[in-house]
Design a protein that fits this description.
Blueprint (H helix, E strand, L loop, with lengths): L5 H5 L5 H15 L11 E2 L11 H13 L15 H12 L8 E4 L2 H8 L9 E5 L4 H9 L13 E5 L18 E5 L11 H14 L2 E5 L25 E6 L1 H4 L7 E4 L12 H12 L5 H10 L2 H27 L3 E4 L5 E5 L5 H12 L1 E2 L1 E2 L10 E5 L4 H10 L6
Parallel strand pairs: 1-11, 3-4, 3-5, 5-6, 6-7
Antiparallel strand pairs: 2-8, 7-8, 9-10, 10-13, 12-13
Helix pairs in contact: 3-10, 11-13
Bound molecules: ligand PGU.
């Protein structure tokens, strides 16, 4: 019989979010009172959008679908994405600094995070912020970049702690040379946003050490402080050492629609001078046939003046939830960060394990959170609260949190 891919044996048995869903189901099955309105379980766990797509963007999706039913409007494969959308992304988010062939439309940031690993191969050392979005580590292990079996050319994964002690910014002297470094700002899960000075230091370190940064800007539209950078490409020279993945999921409510983009600058080169952009175009063209045309029509609507107002309104709404959650936790004396320029609140329960706190909040409040240890060793004793929820549910959850007292 055929053998199992050894890399699969090296990833943790369950991906974090399905594991949380499993524990929630188990709890619900054992507690019939969760079927009542007072006892119902409220999820502040997975960062999944809950609010309807706003009217202008929705009309973009509807019109995109209708166009497919006409001779003039019909379109088939789009490969790297609609030219108009690629140009619009460059002008709206990057002051037009990228040509359309440096902007690749995807079916979401997560999907490209997985595919991007193909560029670098199994021998490339990987570094992540600790804690970080688990897909960076699991995706690396799956592709063999950090496989642990004998003879794999094991390089390991470097976890760079981002904790209160270093203001959630890693010690860059620990960044391994010639590595791939996943960096997320605003950060999932801590909610920390790197300053311009910090990102400049990051770019400088990456250039000196021959690293490539994969910058995940999935939460950029939650930034309200104008001094904070929304993109790595606001930093000089980032075009020679960074790739940016991004998404319409959270700003436009497209978690189920599926649309994102990746910037691979032409200035980005491998050690031997060959173009990373050209390879990415080759890989994308080979194993990805483009994002849905309907989703792209919605994306275009999201980026015109009316659409951008809706993006602002939607992200404002979730930030309003974040404020309620943060203040409910602070009233209980729980120390927490995030939630100001990000939809996540990172709460510390000193001396406890994350799964233990997760279980207590589920049992006492019927509220689902995400255990911090699922994001890396430095996440232990934290839980993450997501601000994605209906307002009434968030208010109800905040009220129930007072049951944690004493
Ligand atoms: N990047 C980061 C940093 C994320 O937190 C998420 C979603 C994504 C990318 C995914 O973006 P898409 O464009 O929708 O693919 N994180 C959520 C959902 C969990 C998951 O498995 O993606 C979270 O709760 O962390």
């Amino acid at each position: 019989m055929i053998e199992r891919n050894k890399c699969i044996a090296n990833i943790k048995a369950g991906y974090l979010f399905p594991e949380i869903a499993r524990r929630r189901r188990e709890y619900a099955a054992a507690h019939p009172e969760t079927n009542s309105p007072e006892g119902r379980i409220i999820s502040l766990g997975v960062g999944n959008t809950t609010e309807p797509v706003l009217p202008h963007i929705d009309a973009g999706l509807v019109n995109g679908a209708k166009a497919l039913g006409t001779v003039e409007g019909y379109s088939g494969y789009q490969d790297e994405g609609l030219l108009e959308l690629r140009e619009k992304i460059s002008s709206v988010f990057y002051k037009g600094m990228f040509s359309a062939d440096e902007v690749f439309i995807s079916d979401g940031a997560k999907c490209d995070i997985g595919r991007l690993q193909l560029l670098f191969g199994a021998g490339t050392p990987v570094a992540v912020q600790d804690p970080s979005y688990p897909v960076y580590v699991d995706g690396s292990v799956l592709i063999g970049a950090a496989g642990g079996w004998a003879g794999s050319g094991y390089q390991g994964i470097s976890y760079l702690p981002c904790t209160a002690e270093n203001s959630y910014f890693p010690d860059l002297s620990k960044l391994p040379a010639n590595s791939l470094f996943y960096f997320c700002s605003p950060n999932n899960p801590t909610g920390a946003v790197a300053s311009k000075e910090q990102l400049s230091a990051l770019v400088k370190a990456a250039r000196e050490k021959g690293c490539v940064i994969i910058f995940d800007g999935a939460y950029a539209e939650f930034i309200r402080d104008p001094a904070l950078p929304k993109s790595i490409f606001e930093i000089d020279d980032a075009g020679t050492c960074a790739i940016e993945v991004n998404s319409f999921s959270k700003p436009a409510g497209f978690t189920g629609v599926r649309l994102g983009w990746t910037i691979v600058p032409k200035d980005l080169k491998y050690l031997n001078g060959e173009s990373i952009n050209a390879d990415w175009a080759r890989i994308a063209g080979t194993i990805f046939n483009g994002a849905s045309n309907i989703a792209q029509a919605g994306g275009l609507a999201a980026l015109d003046a009316e659409g951008l107002k809706e993006v602002r309104a939607l992200t404002d709404f979730y930030l309003g939830n974040a404020k309620l959650i943060k203040s409910a936790l602070q009233k209980l004396g729980v120390s927490c960060v995030g939630g100001d320029n990000s939809p996540y609140i990172w709460a510390r329960f000193l001396g406890r394990t994350s799964w233990d706190v997760f279980a207590e909040i589920l049992e006492k409040c019927q509220v689902v959170t995400t255990p911090g240890s699922g994001f890396g060793p430095a996440g232990e004793s934290f839980v993450r609260f997501s601000a994605f929820g209906h307002r009434a549910d968030v208010e109800e959850a905040c009220g129930r949190l007072s049951r944690l007292k004493g």
